[in-house]
């Protein structure tokens, strides 16, 4: 039994040594993968390449000059794009301001036109009232002339009502034109 117990102990020792070796290998692999992952994150992080730390800048320029040039080029492109965007924004703001001024002017012109329209409508109504008043006077005059024509004979009527101008004769003879106007 001692042999079998020795074999078991040897097996246990072998397994523990293997597990220690595997765990050391696993640990080294994990550390290397983590370092590689950290390196990739730093490599793609813009702040790492655009830093103000002098020692880090010197290290980067010594060991990674091409990457430093690429990052500086990227930074200059970003600055140029920012300037272009600022120009576009300023131009847009000027256009918006001009459009607002035109809209405000249009609104004020529209208000003035509405005021003028209202004034003209008031004047038109006043003129229509005046015309209606004159039409009533005219219709009353025509009615009175008609009554006079019925009361007097034609010769007496000419003596009672003598016209001195053409309009008077026109009113007496052709009053149907004015009736159309005053309807």
Which structural traits does this protein have?
mainly alpha, 183 residues
Characterise this structure.
The chain is mainly alpha-helical and 183 residues long. The protein has one domain (45-181). Helix content is 90%, strand content 0%. It has 7 helices and no strands. The chain has helices at residues 2-44, 46-49, 54-63, 65-151, 154-160, 166-173, 176-181. Helix 3 crosses helix 4. It is rod-shaped, with a radius of gyration of 55 Å. The protein starts with a helix and ends with a helix.
In brief:
With 183 residues, the chain is mainly α. It has helices spanning 2-44, 46-49, 54-63, 65-151, 154-160, 166-173, 176-181.
Write the layout of secondary structure elements.
Elements: H1 2-44, H2 46-49, H3 54-63, H4 65-151, H5 154-160, H6 166-173, H7 176-181
Helix pairs in contact: 3-4
Number of strands: 0
Taken in chain order, the helices and strands follow as HHHHHHH
What's the structural domain tally? 1
Distance between the termini: 142 Å
Structural class: mainly alpha
Hey, roughly how much beta strand do the residues contain? Answer: under 5%
Shape: rod-shaped
Specify the biggest β-sheet.
Answer: none
Q: How many whole angstroms does the radius of gyration measure?
A: 55 Å
What is the mean pLDDT? 81
Helicity range of the residues?
over 70%
């Amino acid at each position: 039994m001692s042999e079998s117990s020795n074999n078991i102990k040897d097996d246990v020792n072998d397994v523990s040594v293997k597990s220690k070796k595997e765990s050391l290998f696993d640990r080294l692999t994990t550390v290397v993968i983590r370092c590689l992952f950290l390196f990739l994150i730093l490599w793609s992080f813009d702040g790492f390449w655009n830093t103000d730390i002098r020692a880090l800048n010197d290290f980067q320029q010594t060991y990674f000059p091409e990457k430093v040039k690429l990052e500086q080029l990227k930074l200059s492109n970003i600055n140029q794009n920012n300037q272009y965007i600022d120009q576009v924004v300023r131009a847009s703001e000027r256009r918006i301001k001009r459009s607002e001024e035109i809209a405000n002017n249009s609104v004020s012109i529209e208000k003035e036109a509405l005021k003028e329209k209202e004034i003209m409508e008031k004047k038109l109504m006043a003129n229509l009232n005046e015309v209606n008043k004159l039409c009533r006077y005219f219709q009353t005059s025509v009615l009175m002339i008609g009554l006079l024509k019925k009361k007097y004979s034609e010769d007496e009527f000419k003596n009672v009502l003598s016209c001195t101008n053409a309009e008077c004769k026109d009113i007496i003879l052709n009053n149907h034109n004015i009736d159309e106007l005053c309807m």
